[in-house]
TrEMBL record:
Source organism (scientific name): Amazonocrinis nigriterrae CENA67
Keyword Oxidoreductase listed: yes
This protein's record includes keyword Oxidoreductase: yes
Protein name: D-glycerate dehydrogenase
Keywords: Oxidoreductase
Residues of the D-isomer specific 2-hydroxyacid dehydrogenase catalytic domain: 7-318
Source species, domain of life: Bacteria
D-isomer specific 2-hydroxyacid dehydrogenase NAD-binding domain: residues covered: 108-286
């Protein structure tokens, strides 16, 4: 029997030996993702596809002999899961292993934005540090402030655990209210979205990118926030309307933001957002710890191998 064929859309930080035992593996080695027409050609002959969030896997790509799609990410908004389910193709993802790394990074952004770390670094390198000044680069307190967490799954809850150590009042909003035991152990209170926006000093986004969360943050929501509020987004760029974010930051409707994700990605070099000093932008690196990225790749490979063998994927989004 001939070996299964697999296409991997980028180099991964792990050994492929285990996968190569069960499949002939082709890896796309360019820095940029494979173009759509390359993917269209590949899917005609492969059994398994291992992809990243930069690959748009839409219905025409879910074709041929494909038996499994395995994504190296927890989010899978780039994949037409409904089309895959229709063809009974399992889609794997990598939940859990990136929770702490992403929560750590959200926390790093929150602290950097609040205490103006990027501006301070720029100021120092520009030779502007001449003396100690009582009102130089002031920011708000983090300890004791109110944090609003939008989306209270694994990563939102991990952020709450960090916030607890900073004696914060922690509000969360999500599709449903969690059990009182969990709320108590994390020290959080459920709040409707609008109340959370009105009362929070920091708002951090941890929702998936879906039709329901598309531009969840737009002019109306920024208008409800405090002028001193800081927005953090390590989830999906599509959750925040970039034009409304620009208006909110440029007009002082909110004080600052720090985002690891943008719409589109990468952010266009002529985006007006790049002109703002009260915005930190990083290139979607929330999960980028060495250990985490390696675990994500291993998990995606395990999903892929299971799919090639016709077994249930360990982490499947469409069981
Ligand atoms: C994910 O996994 O969905 C992140 O956005 C990338 O780690």
């Amino acid at each position: 029997m001939s070996k299964a064929k697999v296409f991997i859309t980028r180099r991964l930080p792990v050994e492929l030996k285990q996968l190569q035992e069960v499949a002939t593996v082709e890896v796309w080695t360019e820095r940029q993702p494979p173009p759509y027409d390359v993917l269209l050609e590949k899917v005609k002959t492969i059994d398994g596809l291992l992809c990243l969030l930069t690959d748009k896997i839409d219905s025409p790509l879910i074709a041929g002999n494909l038996k499994v799609i395995s994504q190296v990410a927890v989010g899978y908004d780039n994949i037409d899961v409904a089309a895959a389910s229709k063809r009974k193709i399992p889609v794997g993802h990598t939940p859990g292993v990136l929770t702490d790394a992403t929560a750590d990074f959200a926390w790093a952004l929150l602290m950097a934005a609040a205490r103006r770390v990027m501006e301070a670094d720029k100021f120092t390198r520009a030779g502007l540090w001449q003396t100690w000044e009582p009102d130089l680069l002031l920011g708000p307190n983090i300890t004791g402030a109110t944090l609003g967490i939008v989306g209270f799954g694994r990563i939102g809850q991990a952020v709450a655990r960090r916030a607890k150590g900073f004696d914060m009042r922690i509000l969360y909003t999500s599709r449903y209210q969690w059990e009182p035991e969990l709320e108590k152990s994390l020290g959080v209170e459920f709040a409707p979205f609008e109340q959370l926006l009105q009362e929070s000093d920091f708002v951090t986004v941890h929702t998936p990118g879906t039709d329901d969360t598309y531009h969840l943050f737009s002019d109306r929501q920024f208008n409800l926030m405090k002028p001193e509020a800081i927005l953090i987004n390590t989830a999906r760029g599509t959750v925040v309307d970039p034009d409304a974010l620009y208006r909110a930051l440029a007009s002082g409707k909110i004080a600052a933001a720090a985002v690891d994700v943008t719409e589109p990605e990468p952010i266009p070099q002529d985006s007006p957002l790049l002109t703002l000093d009260n915005l930190i932008i990083t290139p979607h690196i929330g999960s980028a710890s060495r250990q985490t990225r390696s675990k994500m790749a291993k998990m995606a490979i395990a999903n892929l191998i299971a799919g090639l063998k016709g077994h249930q994927l360990p982490y499947c989004v469409n069981p």
